[in-house]
Design a protein that fits this description.
Layout: E1 3-4, H1 10-19, H2 25-36, H3 50-59, E2 60-61, E3 66-72, E4 78-83, E5 89-97, E6 100-104, E7 108-110, H4 119-123, E8 125-128, H5 131-149, E9 158-161, H6 171-182, E10 194-198, H7 202-211, E11 215-219, H8 225-231, H9 240-251, E12 259-265, H10 273-286, E13 294-300, H11 314-327, E14 330-333, H12 352-368, H13 375-381
Parallel strand pairs: 1-2, 6-9, 9-10, 10-11, 11-12, 12-13, 13-14
Antiparallel strand pairs: 3-4, 4-5, 5-6, 7-8
The structure holds iron/sulfur cluster.
Length: 382
């Protein structure tokens, strides 16, 4: 098997072409075929010389991820489970809205940060995804949706890296995938419409700001160190003061004039009016008296048994949100989408035990019927 061209951003592809003795500009043609037209067959690339196509066939592939299952929610949300080998699976979720189409993608198989409220965190860390595996989620979803919806124009306008994994713990691969998303010859997405969500990898936040300043979301979940230590263990390494200072530095380069803070609402843990006040004070302190630099996104927790946590009642969420809004913090309460297919936030890994069982069943089926294995079979098993 040759190189998988999904692994390359445009610069990488130009170097690859040079190694083949081809001019660098060939990479632009190739890149456009792959990412704009969704081609995976070199023979379809009719404006490339046959000799080049033959060369490519001999040493390269465009190999997408295999889809283990697809689930469609009544609200239009679609979740895909992709096989990344070694018994690992990752998920991507498409969320259609009237004015945009958002794809939530994964950056790692599992996650090492181990946030208490996150089912991916409870699953543990398996490995970093390659740039090709990250971009393949967008490649697949965009071209699947165009075919599925019978449309020629771009469907996915926004990408959020809020699926499985901490993107900034897989920095180089994420950066390469971001470059492909943003490039005019790739997906041409605006920096304002691509969001990296981090649990607080402070040094990498600074690097992202220098290398590729896309929109930033920070998984905050608590306004005080002791509480945040217990919810997001990374806080012990990069406590709130370091995190908030990094956020303020990022604002200088951010494509928007605010940073989004995610706050998962956990009944009796982080949802009291006093903590809402503490959150306002924290934002005001680092905003030097201003609150316009931040947006708070309150996320209803999606309970899973191993967490021992409960979703805050609607009434507690409302009081918390009102406290923030009354103080002048722009606050939204995230609508839950795709609840019927477990695609809502924090459910991306699925229920840990269930997934393991699914993978075991997949393996068994593969061993028993290798010739007949198909995603549809797996779909039945789920
Ligand atoms: S919330 Fe994000 S950083 Fe925390 S464990 Fe889950 S995937 Fe990892």
């Amino acid at each position: 098997m040759g190189a998988n061209l999904l692994d390359y951003d445009l610069e990488g592809l130009a170097l690859f072409c040079e190694r083949l003795g081809e001019k660098r500009f060939r990479a632009v043609q190739l890149f456009r075929w792959i990412h704009q037209k969704g081609a995976s067959d070199f023979d379809a690339m009719t404006d490339l010389a046959k000799s080049l196509r033959d060369k490519l066939k001999a040493c390269a592939t465009i190999t997408p991820l295999s889809v283990l299952s697809r689930q469609d929610s009544a609200d239009g949300t679609i979740k895909w489970l992709f096989d990344v080998g070694g018994g690992d699976a990752i998920e991507a979720v498409y969320i259609p809205e009237t004015d945009r189409g958002t794809l939530c993608i994964s950056s790692q198989a599992g996650c090492a940060v181990a946030c208490r409220f996150c089912s991916t965190g409870h699953q543990g860390f398996s490995r970093n995804l390659t740039a090709g595996e990250i971009i393949a989620q967008l490649w697949f979803a965009e071209h699947f949706l165009r075919t599925h919806l019978g449309r020629d124009e771009r469907i996915i306008s926004n990408v959020v890296m809020m699926g499985m994994g901490e993107p900034l713990q897989n920095y180089d691969q994420v950066l390469s995938a971001l470059r492909t998303m943003l490039h005019d010859h790739g997906y041409g997405l605006s920096r304002r419409r691509v969001t990296v969500s981090t649990s607080g990898m402070v040094p990498m936040m600074d690097r992202l700001g220098q290398d590729c300043a896309v929109a930033l979301a920070v998984s905050l979940h608590a306004p005080q160190d002791a509480l945040r230590d217990s919810l997001v263990p990374l806080n012990k390494k990069y406590p709130l003061d370091a995190l908030m200072q990094a956020c303020v530095r990022y604002l200088d380069v951010a494509p928007r004039d605010f940073i989004t803070f995610e706050y998962c609402m956990l009944e009796g843990v982080n949802d009291t009016p006093e903590l809402a006040q503490a959150l306002v004070a924290l934002m005001r302190h680092y905003g030097q008296g201003q609150l316009s630099w931040c947006k708070l996104n309150l996320i209803p927790f999606n309970p899973f048994p191993a967490s021992g946590l409960q979703r805050s009642s609607a009434q507690r969420v409302q009081v918390f949100a009102q406290t923030l809004s009354a103080a002048g913090v722009v606050t939204t309460v995230r609508k839950t989408r795709g609840d019927d297919i477990d695609a809502a936030c924090g459910q991306l890994a699925g229920e840990v035990k269930d997934r393991t069982q699914v993978m075991r069943r997949i393996d068994k089926r593969r061993a028993a019927e290798p010739a007949h294995f198909s995603p549809e079979i797996v779909h039945d098993l789920l």
